[in-house]
Design goal:
The chain has 325 residues and is of the alpha/beta class. Helices cover 51% and strands 7% of the residues. The chain has helices spanning 17-25, 39-44, 55-65, 79-88, 93-107, 124-130, 143-152, 160-180, 191-196, 198-209, 221-227, 250-253, 256-265, 267-272, 286-316, and strands at 7-10, 30-31, 112-116, 135-140, 186-190. It has a five-stranded parallel beta sheet, sandwiched between helices. Helix 7 (143-152) crosses helix 8 (160-180). The protein is globular, with a radius of gyration of 20 Å.
């Protein structure tokens, strides 16, 4: 059985990470909390808390972590009690964050905690500075299906071309991470394989995590009711039976122009992940290709700017970050 290492589940938005997190949460040893929002702001604003060896600074950090913008309330933990536990924890940012997730796991009678948020694909270097022994799960879904799914949800307002560039960049970033990490730190699986043969895929996932597969993972509706909040209507399918027929729904939901553009600009990435080109789309114009590459370039520019600023801050204000819980 594995040591109780943190687990981070990442992938492009709408790649099935919520479904997989629910299956993992159904395991008797693993707790996957509702998706939170406090890690990235805490890391980026860490300089304002100063020296965390001082209890008063840990208290200020703790009081900010439990504010509602970070969705702490969805964990259903006592706020005052969590502040005291963070103050009593080792004096690092990773320990403060890990204390919250460990307490969530304990509240569910579980030994291990995980965290699922697709947006972390941009920030895995930072995640691993905070949790250097973490295990990373990279869930891949056919990019055409991700684009079609993002078109349907109200919170994606950037359009299909931006969805396409997000998928290709997330795939490239996480594959690059997988080449750097040892085999016991990075595991990649496909959403389509999970739907087609959940027992086999979950068995391989558990082997990677150093856990025994448990049949409860195949009956995940109760776990969904615990961690998928009712207002997230776009995750309703996590409560029902698996539906492999949805795998090819993108053929009906994307236009010929969208299929043609995505298969032209992402053909290598699609094939690398085992997805064949359909050939049913209309070949894109030069202007359509340029729009895609502009979207990808703007995203990369933001990511590189954030990383450069973070590198400068780490040189100027070196802090001990890693979880020592």
């Amino acid at each position: 059985m594995s040591e109780n290492r943190p687990i981070f589940l990442v992938g492009c938005p709408r790649s099935g990470t919520t479904l997989l997190s629910v299956m993992m949460h159904a395991h008797p040893r693993i707790a996957m909390p509702p998706e939170t929002r406090f890690l990235l702001p805490a890391y980026r604003n860490r300089a304002q808390y100063g020296d965390l060896s001082k209890p008063e600074n840990r208290r200020r950090l703790a009081e900010d972590l439990i504010l509602d913008p970070g969705r702490f309330h969805e964990l259903q933990l006592d706020k005052a009690e969590m502040v005291e536990k963070i103050v009593a924890a080792p004096p690092t940012l990773g320990s403060a964050l890990g204390t919250i997730w460990r307490e969530f796991a304990r509240s569910r009678g579980k030994a291990r905690w995980g965290e699922k948020r697709p947006a972390y694909w941009r920030d895995m270097g930072m995640i691993l500075r905070l949790f250097p022994d973490a295990q990373v799960i990279h869930l891949v879904r056919d990019g055409r299906a991700c684009v079609a799914s993002l078109k349907r949800v109200h919170w994606w307002t950037s359009g299909p071309v931006s969805a396409m560039s997000s998928w290709t960049l997330a795939d490239a970033e996480l594959r690059r991470l997988g080449r750097r990490l040892p085999a016991d730190r990075y595991h990649r699986l496909r959403y389509e394989d999970l739907l087609s043969d959940p027992r086999a895929e979950l068995g391989r996932l558990c082997a990677f995590l150093g856990e025994q597969f448990d049949e409860a993972m195949l009956n995940h509706s109760r776990a969904a009711n615990d961690i998928v909040k009712s207002y997230k209507t776009w995750h309703e399918k996590t409560r029902g039976e698996l539906d492999p027929q949805r795998i090819e729904a993108w053929r009906r939901e994307l236009s010929a122009e969208e299929i043609g553009l995505f298969e032209a600009v992402a053909k290598r990435a699609l094939r690398r992940n085992g997805y064949e080109l359909s050939g049913i789309g209309r070949p894109p114009s030069a202007a359509e290709r340029a729009g895609y590459y502009d979207s990808a370039a703007r995203k990369l520019a933001i990511i590189y700017k954030e990383r450069a600023a973070d590198a400068v801050q780490r040189r100027r204000h070196p802090q001990e970050l890693a979880d020592r819980g």
